[in-house]
Structure of Response regulator:
Amino acid sequence: MPHVLIIEDSYLFGEFVADAATLAGAGSIEVAESQAAAERAAARRAPDLIIADVCLRHGTGTAAVARIAADGVAAPVLYLTAHPDRCPSGGRVIAKPVSHDRLRLTIAEAFANHATPHRQR
């Protein structure tokens, strides 16, 4: 079952996203509240899907995703943000606010459309 890394600095919204991911079929989830925490989490266990907010209190989700990819983790990315204009190309963007059903369906679709990624060295 897929492992999901959620990069979100709002505890309540992180739980909202984690619940949607669980219902979509995630086998395990880790929520990181900062760029550095996200990078450490991905180093411990490569995610099969990354769901990232763009603006964090400490760092940015986009910088975390770039660093994780540079470290060899090939995982699809869903940017879940109130700032879609700040998202780089290469990931799917979902604007906040988002309904739980739409988020769950989008995550399930991401699982279905992507083979389990791996570290590329």
Summary: The longest helix spans residues 11-24. The domain at 3-113 is CATH 3.40.50.2300 (Rossmann fold). Residues 117-121 have pLDDT under 50 and may be disordered. Residues 8 and 14 are 6 Å apart (CA to CA).
